[in-house]
Amino acid sequence: MISALALGGLFGLGLWLIVTSLPWAQRRPDLAFELRRLSAQGRMEMEAERQRAVPPMFVSPMLERTLRPVLDDAGRLVGRLLGRLGMRTADLEQRLAVGWPGMTTSQFFGQKLAVGLLFLAFLPALNLTGLQPFGTWPAWAWLGAGLLGFVQPDWLLERRVARRRQQVLMELPTVLDLLAMAISAGLSPEQALLDVSRQVKGVLGEGLRNVAREAGLGTMTHPDALRALAAREGVPEITTMADAWQSALEQGLPLGQVMLQLADTVRDRKRTTLIAEGEKSSVRMLFPVTLFIFPVFLVVLLYPAGVQLLGLGD
Predict the structure, then answer these.
(1) Any idea what DSSP says for residue 58?
(2) What is the pLDDT of residues 2-48, one digit of tens each?
(3) Do the Cβ atoms of 171 and 205 come closer than 8 Å?
């Protein structure tokens, strides 16, 4: 009886989430929103709001409105507890700004808590429904699953940060080549950086537009803004670019030639990194080959010989 009720409840919840996530079941924008999107000032305000907006945790708008504030408050408490225990990393806000723009630390800890509780409830749900291929799931397995779910957002954040850094490194040589060509054409370094930032549409292009904006407002110089970008993205090659920029301006060296040399250096580093990753991949392949492929190969190879030696084929 309990298993049937649990299965019925899970089926009803899944059906409700599917129906509420369909386009025709979602709330449509009103007339004021459409008129605001047609004006230039409205589009600028909407773009600023979009950059400050927090990524949703749930697909369903109702769950986002009801459960998200509770998880945010719980995440704030979890963050304070981890801070007192000394388990909270100092650069979490910086990594969140790179990997999950708009998400605060309390919202991140709330997401960790939600995923941990979901993983924790999975094995008891299997016990209730009778899905026990290896026997009843013990309590220590529940706690292990909850711990695995709690740390899963950290792994996802690291993957997002690494993917963004890799994207910046892929775009950097092209940006350096464009800067060198623009400076060689007679543009000033500041104007060349502004033009190149408008042409590049990726992550690095957006960062360079922020650099040009900050330098144009006079808050910091171009090399300092580039160093801030390098610290924010975690890419030391941009720091090398800032040092080369400042050295060229102080010593009167041609900046275009410096950028070309730096582009070649970045390409060499990227080539070395790819070779090193390829060597690591060959080492990682030893485990599945030894565990799965090699035993099967031995069975296929030795089984006919064993049959002949034991006389089982007669």
Answers:
(1) -
(2) 666 666 666 666 666 666 665 555 556 566 666 666 776 666 666 66
(3) yes
Distance CA 271, CA 275 (A): 6
What domains can be seen in the chain, in order of their start residue? 166-270 (1.20.81)
- N residues, the chain: 314
d(CA 195, CA 189): 10
Q: And the tokens for 106? A: 């309390």
User: Whole-angstrom Cα distance, residue 198 to residue 208?
Assistant: 9
End-to-end CA distance of the chain: 56
Q: How many Cα neighbours within 13 Å face the side chain of 198? A: 7
- C-alpha 305/C-alpha 210 separation (Å) is 71
| 42-89 pLDDT, tens digit each | 666 666 666 555 666 666 677 677 777 777 778 788 878 877 777 766
- Dist. CA 84–CA 305, nearest whole Å: 65
Report yes or no: 16 and 51 within 8 Å, Cβ to Cβ.
no
Structure tokens at 178: 């464009």
